[in-house]
Specification:
The chain is of the alpha/beta class. It is about 50% helix and about 15% strand. It has one domain: Rossmann fold. The chain is built from nine helices and eight strands. Helix 1 packs across helix 9, helix 2 crosses helix 4 and helix 4 packs parallel to helix 8. Bound molecules: cytidine-5'-diphosphate (CDP). Cytidine-5'-diphosphate binds next to helix 2, helix 4 and helix 8.
Length: about 230
């Protein structure tokens, strides 16, 4: 018998966290939660409603009208995020959202709102969640914490390819600048900055195939699932 655990995957922008998290969740029959999607969906709501990020009251009020939900889509074999009942999974991947999301995610009220929901999702364990502060703040007692890294150039290429498939007008420079900007804001913000948790295992996947990366992480997970 194996015990159910919590697996956290944190790290820099576009270093393959969600790919690994989805594979682990699938193999283990666990729930996968993309915490970044929540910050992206909140950003979409704020942009649509012209919320002034500098106005604390306005931000607080706006959050009262934000309802987020993950719904499994069997066609894509993936869970997708809904903002007030609307599937926004595709819209939130746009560069327009990526340009603003780190500013939104640095706001205390926004983090409290998202983190409270994320903690609840882990109540029953059996979950893989990726993000920036999952091992440090959301689940500090998680049984397995992974901190992912990859060379900047590799990360830029990967994200460029993803975005180019949707929008051929996008340039490498736009993608590079966005990743650099987000990494800077995410790791320098006051509240819950991106950090490797002390007990996290570092996984640099610059020269690993998806299969190699998965095998490593899966063996760590199996080890932690053993009942001692
Ligand atoms: O582009 P990538 O998949 O690497 O990022 P994401 O996971 O979609 O997250 C988008 C942004 O949300 C990040 O750049 C952070 O500003 C914020 N975020 C956060 O602050 N904390 C998390 N746990 C997850 C994301």
């Amino acid at each position: 018998m194996a015990k159910k655990i919590i697996i956290t995957i944190d790290g820099w922008s576009s270093c393959g966290k969600s790919t690994l998290a989805k594979q682990l969740a699938k193999e283990l029959g666990y729930v996968y939660v993309d915490s970044g999607a929540m910050y992206r969906a909140i950003t979409l709501y704020f942009l649509r409603n012209n919320i002034d990020l500098a106005e604390k009251k306005e931000v607080k009020e706006a959050l009262k009208s934000v309802s987020l939900e993950f719904v499994f889509n069997p066609k894509r074999n993936n869970s997708e995020i809904y903002l007030n009942g609307e599937n926004v999974e595709y819209l939130i991947r746009d560069l327009v959202i990526a340009e603003k999301v780190s500013d939104v995610a640095a706001i205390k009220e926004v983090r409290e709102f998202a983190v409270a929901q994320q903690k609840k999702m882990g109540d029953k364990k059996g979950i893989v969640m990726d993000g920036r502060d999952i091992g440090t703040v959301v689940f500090p007692k998680a049984e397995l914490k992974i901190f992912m890294t990859a060379d900047n150039a590799v990360r830029v290429q990967r994200r460029f390819k993803e975005l180019y498939d949707k929008n051929p007008n996008i340039t490498i420079d736009e993608v590079k600048n966005n990743l650099e900007m987000r990494d800077y804001i995410d790791s320098n913000r006051e509240i819950s900055p991106l950090r490797k948790a002390k007990d996290a295992i570092e996984l640099d996947n610059t020269s690993l195939t998806e299969k190699e990366q998965f095998n490593k992480a899966f063996s760590w997970a199996k080890e932690r699932m053993k009942i001692k």
